[in-house]
Amino acid sequence: MEIKEQLEIIKRGSDELLIEEELVDKLKSGRPLRIKAGFDPTAPDLHLGHTVLINKMRQLQDLGHHILFLIGDFTAMIGDPTGKNATRPPLSGAQIKQNAETYTTQVFKILDLRKTEICFNSSWMAKLSAADMIKLAATHTVARMLERDDFGKRYRSNQPIAIHEFLYPLVQGYDSVTMRADMELGGTDQKFNLLMGRELQKHWGQPPQCVLTMPLLEGVDGVNKMSKSLGNYIGITESPEQIFGKLMSVSDELMWRYIEMLSFDSLATIRRWKQEVEAGRNPRDVKVTFAREIVARFHNRAAADKALANFEARFKQGEVPENIPEITLPTEGEPILIYQVLKQAGLTASTSEAIRMIEQGGVKMNGEKVSDKALKLAAGGPFVLQVGKRKFAKVLLS
Fold first, then answer.
1. E-state strands within the chain
2. Which DSSP string do the residues of 190-224 spell out, in sequence order?
3. Which are the contacts of 150, defined by CB distance < 8 A and separation ≥ 6?
4. Are the C-beta atoms of 283 and 256 separated by less than 8 Å?
C-alpha cells in the first residue's frame, strides 16, 4: 500500500500525529513497525471507549505492523494520575491479576492473537534496583513534571501530589525504551506521558517513537467521556440487546463520530453513507448497520441479527408507543440518579415509588430492564423510560 494511503488509515479518527515526517521515514524503511499501546488493568471489563485504541491497533496490524499490547500491571500499582485531582489508591496484586486476565480475553475480539505480542511491564520494572529507579527519576525535574496540566492544577490549588505519582510518566516512558517502540498510541489526555517516551528513548540513544493520540470517546449522552461511573457506557461484555439498544439511542450527530472511531468499514463507505443521508436517506438505517457490526464483533452475526429483530419488535411493533411525551430535565452539570429522573419526569409519584418499581423489575430504559437503583444518568439522551406497562417518556437531560 502507498504510504499516503497508510497515513490516511493511521490518522483516521485521530487527534494528533507527532511527528508525521518521522513516521513517513519509518514507513519508507519497509519493515514492520513496533506499535505500542498500554492499558492499566484497573477495572475488570472494557467498554467501547477503551476499544478506540484497540481498533486503531487492529488497523495498524492489518497494515502489517507488529502490535505490542502492554498490560501495565506495574504502573497499575502506582495508579495513573492523569486527569485526577487526587491521588488514586493503588490496586492490590490480586485485583490487578484478575483484571489483566479479563483484558487478555476481551481484546482478542478485535486484535489477531497470532499477530499480537502481549507484554507486562512488571517483567522488566520489577527487576530494576532502587539505584536504577533513582537514575530514571534523575532524567527529569520537578518543574518539568509540573508542566503537566493535572499536576500543575493540583499544585496551584494546594492539592497534595504524592512523590510516587511523578514516577508514573517516567515508567510509561521507560516502557517504550525497553520495548523499542516505533510508535505509541494513547488518548489525548496521555500526551505528556507519550512524549516522555520520546525523551527517554533519546536519553538511551534510541530513535524516538512517533506519537498518535486518539480523542476520548463521548458516552451515549453525547456530553461526557464514556465512563461506567456516569452510566453512559457501552460495555463490550454486555448482552447483544443491550449493546444494540444503547447504540441506537445515540444521537444522529454522535453516530458519525462513533462510526469513524469504532467501525471497520472503509472511509470511502462512510463518505458514501454521509452523502446518502444528506440526500435524504434515514440516518437510522446507517445506525442499524453500525450497531449490527459492533454486536457481531463482540458476539456473533446471529446474535446481531437477533438483537435487531428484538429491537424492531419493541420499537416498531407497538411495545413502545410512537408518540410518547418528550421531557427535558435540568441536571446543573451533575449526573442524576435514575429514580430522581423517574419522579421528575412524572413517571412515578415519588422517589420511593420509583425505587420500589426498580426493585420489582418494573422499570426499563431504552428497552432494557433497570436493576440498579443507584444508576446515575449524565446529561444527554434522549432516554426512553418505561414504568410498568403503560407509562412512557422520552427524557432529555440538559
1. 16-18, 34-39, 66-71, 116-120, 183-187, 210-214, 326-329, 336-337, 363-365, 368-369, 376-377, 380-387, 391-397
2. GHHHHHHHHHHHHHTT-PPPEEEEEPPPB-TTSSS
3. 81, 82, 83, 84, 85
4. no
Q: Which three cell numbers stand for residue 393?
A: 417518556
What residue has cell string 487492529?
58
Could you give the C-alpha distances from 239 to 4, 30, 95, 164, 298, in angstroms and in order? 39, 42, 24, 39, 9
Let me know if 199 is exposed, middle or buried by CB neighbors in 10 A (0-12, 13-18, 19+): middle
Cell of residue 82, nine digits: 492523569
| Bridge partner residues of 116 (DSSP) | 67
Q: Can you tell me which residue has the cell 461511573?
A: 229
Cell of 55: 481498533
Which of 116, 103, 119 has its CA nearest to residue 45? 103
Residue closest to 88 by CA, chosen among 80, 98, 99: 80
Tell me the pLDDT of the chain (398 aa) as tens digits: 789 999 999 998 899 999 999 999 999 999 999 999 988 776 667 889 888 999 999 999 999 999 999 988 887 777 655 555 455 566 677 777 777 777 777 888 889 988 899 899 899 999 999 999 899 989 988 888 888 777 888 888 888 888 888 888 899 999 999 999 999 999 888 898 899 999 999 999 999 999 999 998 888 877 788 877 667 789 888 889 889 988 988 888 889 999 999 999 988 899 999 999 999 888 889 999 999 999 999 999 999 999 998 888 766 555 666 567 788 888 777 888 999 999 888 888 888 889 988 988 889 888 788 888 888 888 777 788 988 877 888 888 87
What is the spatial order of strands in the sheet that 66-71 belongs to? 16-18, 210-214, 183-187, 34-39, 66-71, 116-120
